[in-house]
Amino acid sequence: MALAPDWQGGSGLTAGASFLQGKHSMDKQPRSQRHRTFKGGSISYAGAASTDCIIRNMSDTGACLEVSNTSGVPDNFKLIIKPEILTRSCEVVWRTEQRIGVRFK
């Protein structure tokens, strides 16, 4: 969750933003423990199209994937985890220019 900057000239967070973040995180259900990885993967979509990726961390419920550019990656796809050749159906939860957070379906 991104926090609101202090737009009144300060460099820190506003007291309200800090308070809201703490309250919000208490309301969330805890997610599965993420484990750092450095595995190869392939994002498969639209039939035969695919994009190589690096799996940066993974849990039973999702993963963080690194790609050269996320713009062409759809919101739903199959992740092929190498070298095990496991396949997981994924839904994008968040994305940046080079990383994608996914939830396993």
Q: What low-confidence regions span 5 or more consecutive residues with pLDDT below 50?
A: 1-27
In what order do the strands lie side by side in the largest sheet? 1-2-3-6-5-4
User: Could you tell me the radius of gyration in angstroms?
Assistant: 17 Å
Which CATH architecture of the domain at 35-104 would you pick? Beta Barrel
CATH class membership of the domain at 35-104: Mainly Beta
Instruction: Indicate the overall shape.
Output: globular
Helix-strand topology string: HEEEEEE
Distance between the termini: 22 Å
Structural class: mainly beta
Estimated helix fraction: 10-25%
At the fourth level of CATH, the homologous superfamily of the domain at 35-104 is predicted glycosyltransferase like domains
Assembly state of the chains shown: single chain
Mean pLDDT across all amino acids: 78
- CATH topology call of the domain at 35-104: Thrombin, subunit H
Strand content: over 45%
Strand count: 6
How many helices in DSSP terms? 1
Profile the largest sheet: 6 strands, antiparallel, barrel
Question: Can you characterise this structure?
Answer:
This protein has 105 residues and is mainly beta. It has a domain of 70 residues: Beta Barrel (Thrombin, subunit H), CATH 2.40.10. A hairpin with a 4-residue loop joins strand 4 and strand 5. The N terminus is likely disordered.
